[in-house]
Design a protein that fits this description.
The protein is an alpha/beta fold. It is about 35% helix and about 20% strand. The two termini are about 35 Å apart. Keywords: Hydrolase.
Length: about 325
């Protein structure tokens, strides 16, 4: 494992992504640490780390560009995650000939904001619109496919159901999408009891993937992992759930991958909601898969990437 980088030093170096400035040794150290350098498997690809402003936050963002991209994948990570953990998705997308554009959500990774917190889920929509603006500024090729893991999937659900989907959009991929977390009734009750007294509680790390090396890295070696669960984020989620469950239907047809061993989200309820909101969404169920599909075992990743590749062929 490479030597850890210093997140605060790197945050101070981030410049607008569209500026195209040369990268520093700190940026290269970050990319090496998370295995985000595509040169070994995709030597022709170029990559750049920068930032943009949205919803009052400085949002860290990153682009990967093959020589002649045929489409673009816009990627949103899950809660407690950051784009540094999504090298498998980036590798698959580059293999498909896609440019990839990703960002760290507010309070996550290299972006600004209170750790793992948000005032309202509407702020995530502002970040997503900012990501679209970056794709336009960079001239990234259409169609723009969307991919969201867990909370990233919730953001995309919100956009498809309550926003005005852009004409550039292609397919939408939802990996273990969040509508309600598991045991939501108890979580909401706990939030209501704790809210007057505390701003956060210690985070409980879970084993949400069958990849033991990934679990060890996230639990013990990743310097960008938040260590708390803010009550503000739970409150924002509690206001978002009834709004999204009451949203009107959409004619879009998202692609959904869901593990049946997922103990993080209430996936049966979530699939019922999603299937009622969209016109014949396509679903791949993986009996052995847990929640963090972007970092599940190689066999499981191979299976769902084959499912997605068949449907996203240029």
């Amino acid at each position: 494992m490479p030597e850890p980088f210093q997140p605060e030093d790197l945050r101070s170096l981030l410049r607008p992504l569209a500026a195209g400035e040369d990268e520093s040794p700190a940026v290269r150290a970050y990319r090496t640490y998370y295995g985000l350098d595509p040169s070994e498997r995709h030597p022709e690809a170029q990559t750049r780390l920068g930032s943009f402003e949205a919803a009052g936050y400085r949002i860290a963002t990153q682009v990967w560009l093959p020589t002649r991209p045929v489409a673009t994948l816009l990627m949103l990570h899950g809660y407690y995650d950051h784009m540094g953990l999504y090298r498998h998705v980036v590798d698959w997308a580059l293999g498909m000939g896609f440019a990839v554009l990703a960002c760290d959500l507010p309070g996550h990774g290299l972006s600004s904001g209170a750790p793992a917190s948000i005032g309202d889920f509407a702020e995530y929509q502002q970040v997503l619109r900012g990501l679209f603006d970056q794709a336009l500024a960079l001239g990234l090729p259409q169609p723009w496919h969307l991919l969201g893991q867990s909370t990233g999937g919730a953001i995309l659900l919100d956009y498809l159901l309550t926003g005005e989907p852009r004409p550039e959009l292609g397919e939408t991929i939802l990996l273990a999408p969040l509508v309600r977390p598991r045991a939501w009734g108890w979580s909401r009750f706990s939030y209501q009891m704790l809210r007057p007294f505390v701003e956060s509680i210690p985070r409980r790390f879970s084993i949400n993937s069958g990849d033991e090396a990934f679990i060890d890295f996230v639990h013990h070696q990743d310097p960008l992992q938040p260590r708390i669960l803010p009550t503000a984020w739970v409150g924002a989620l509690s206001r978002w759930i009834p709004r999204i469950e009451g949203a009107p239907r959409s004619d879009r047809r998202p692609l959904i991958v869901q593990g049946e061993a997922d103990l993080t989200v209430d996936w049966r309820h979530n699939l019922e909601v999603i299937e009622s909101k969209f016109r014949e969404p396509e679903l791949l169920l993986l009996p052995e898969a847990r929640h963090h599909l972007a970092n599940e075992t190689e066999d499981l990743r191979r299976r769902y990437f084959a499912f997605l590749s068949e449907r996203l062929k240029p």
